[in-house]
Amino acid sequence: MAKKPAKRISRKTNPQKKSRHEEAVKSEPADLTVTKEQKSEVADLPIVGIGASAGGLEAFERFFSKMPDDCGIAFVLVSHFAPSYKSLMPDLLKKYTKMDVYQVEDGMEVKPNTIYIIPPNKDIILQKGILLLMEPFMSRGIRHPIDAFFRSLAENQNEKAICIVLSGTGTEGTLGLQAVKAEGGFVIVQSPESAVYDGMPRSAIATGLADLILSPEKMPDELLKYVGRSLKIARKRPEEAFVLPENINKIFAVIREKTGNDFSDYKQSTIKRRIEKRMFIHNIERIQDYIRFLQQNPDEARTLFKEFLIVVTKFFRDHESFETLKEKVIPELLKDRLSNQPVRVWVVGCSTGEEAHSIAMLFREYMDESLKNYNVQIFATDIDSDSIEKARLGVFPDSIANDVSQERLKRFFIKEKNTYKIKKEIREMIVFSVQNVIKDPPFSKLDLLSCRNLLIYMNPRLQRKVFPIFHYALNRDGFLFLGNSETVGESVDLFSIVDRKWKIYKRKGEVSAPHRGFDLSMQPTEYDLRQPLRIEPKGYTEKMPELIEKMLLDLYAPPCVIINERAEIRYFHGRTGKYLEPAPGEAKFNILDMAKEGLKPKLHKAVFDAQKQKKDIFYKGIQVKIDGDYQIINLTVKPLGESDSLREWMIVIFEEVPTPATKQKEKVSYKPGEATKRIAELERELKDKKESLQITIEELETSNEELKSTNEELQSSNEELQSTNEELETSREELQSLNEELSTVNSELQDKIQELSQANNDMNNLLASIDIATVFLDNDLRIKKFTPAAAELINLIQSDIGRPISNISTNLVYYDLVNDIKDVQHTLIPNEKEVQDKKDSWYLTRILPYRTVENVIDGVILTFVDITELTKLKIAEKSARVYAEGIVNTVREPLIILNADLRVVTANRSFYQTFQVSPEETEDKLIYDLGNRQWDIGALRELLEKILPESNTFENFEVEHYFPILGHRKMLLNARRITQEDRGNPMILLAIEEITER
User: Fold this and answer.
1) CB 127 within 8 A of CB 149
2) Which residues pair with 782 in a beta bridge?
């Protein structure tokens, strides 16, 4: 019976698809038709992502052969296939499981007891229980489909995400499993010894985030236990799963005792998920039992501490936020800064260092673009010592190519097999250290403080401790850089907004230790939020009112008030009661709340425009209702200046316009002209109301941008506008990148010049130190360089550089030298000859092609090694050998020479004639195997193996033996062990004298 294919869900396609996986995962399809029942099923359905590469098929087979067919789990298999390869994996896996196996089609709905396999030349992501196919993203020619799917799995499944990393080369899956772990998901990795290729498993294990490390056949049992326990816990009421807060506080106490770190102010939901996972791994049901286990096992306490930490980050996280940092913040920090004045940056919760390195790269890029150099000091801290150690190494998996542009990879990294290593110029800008931001003293006099995606794990009480520390640490006008999901919360009096979308703030006001609850010992404590915080503008002093009074008397006579950036009145001058009055309820000094009827709309707009445009705003002829009548006034809102003491202040001036007195009539009647005038007044009032309403709407929209709850829907509805905006920004970035490339090329050329200079120095010293005559020729056989030893041999002087070798008269008796050089140049086959010079010296001449680093032939190398002494020794040895052989062959008795293994080295002519054998049948043969084993004589064995090793010689040893060809023979044997000084193994000389006839 044929299997029914999994249901496909139709979706509207976006013609302007984003190219990167991250953007693809974040952007939702325009329409996913999913019913409420389907949503409920997806919410409870465990979805397991499995990544593998080389050797993955075997691991898949071992895994699914042990996985029950009714497990209730959906599996998504992501492997590496060639783009044009037709995958046979669905058919192969069907032999090992009865579950439905499909190759994924776009929009396919995920169902339980089903296996989904990625198709070739596609990337796959998960959204709301739907599998979507994306065009593959290539980074430096490398795809990372496993990381892309794991990240989408983490974003959609959160703490229910489960990923498995199996056999494969490289580092694929490492960054993806970090995303799963950050959401509280479950990670299983194949044990390296059970993998065909252990590159991916070892890279995953090195992160320290793997919950279990098992062979594939052992994974199904543990996976089913985890899924069953997770569903059981999810269906319990919170009080059934944990008795709070007593049990959690006991665990915090143990962690605090063992590690010195307190997690009591971290968000309970995150903490609970980590504890549940550790209980599952140790197969502990009751939390009281786990507390006891924790107390008795210090290693488990340290492991749980590591679980509480969110060890996840990546380069340029929320890429646009870093571009905003580069465009808005870094130019402001470096403007008018002296080259010897350091720029101090603190990266809080740096994890393994990606964010700190990202910021360092931004500063380096800006300095290269501006052709200026500054002393940038980046202090990167984290509570996890293991993460700090990894950050100090500066070595990252090659899958960071998904997050770092090719230009930055080339500019700031060194490729090493399956990793990228940060270059020294970036690494030296950063100091990594272990620090607890709550307990330990903070850094001070900072220009930029980055704390991204750390505050989201802290409760409001802990956040109220942290922000005064940040405020204290920053310089005046220093910047605070938060994560996309974070705000300053209740600390709005400490920081002003620079960029609402990407959460960049600017420090404002002065800090006072008594008001902030932060003493000189740098130990932050919680301050009382019920007491109003007095944040004065920069440069505020007790004599400021007197200075302002004098300035106002000199410049202005009309009534006016001084307000701050939040429209709060800080100073009154003159009789302003005609235009302002306290609003009912709690006492407030907001000028917009105190404005009388008719004044508020224009005043609201004037304050808003003056603050935004940084210029004077003037309105003429405003009708204000005073004591039941209308008074015409002129309104001016004026920023006080650009100095530090007045930058955030504005003055609001009320100028009364005299009007002719009018008699009040009991009955109002209008003449035709007066009616028109009255209509115009009403229209003007209506216009003012509309403007006031418009301003209110704008302010409401601005405030709503800070609420994270609207983020997802807002991004979805504005997708098309964002795509258009990105295209415009891309055009601008292309122009900017041209300048960056020119700066990069210039920097690279300088590095190359330094390397070339060093290499040239090394080469000159090497050539001068060796005693081998060497000559380098170019492709035209012209001399490029030569060693001092070559100068005498080939009659070379320094001015011969550039001359053809054929024009040089050498001292060698080598008439075919030029022809041999040309042959090597043509065939690329090295040539080697022994030649003699005119002084009867001998040289080993080698001619080899000259290969560059790029494997390009760029000339020829000649080397001449003096072998005169060696040649003389060879000649002498040959003469001695001929002499010895002549003597041996002259002896009438048979002689044979054996080596230490009793194999025949050689024999004389008499031996071959006497025993009727040839040299081919004799030499290198075991003596016992000669002539159909006719020499396998017991007496001879005893002679050679026992007597001779002990005495080194024997004489006239009589042996009788029957030889198949010769018949019965009687012989006297004489033997001697011969030890040569230049050879380690001894030789045996055996002389045979026949005495049969005696």
Assistant:
1) no
2) 804
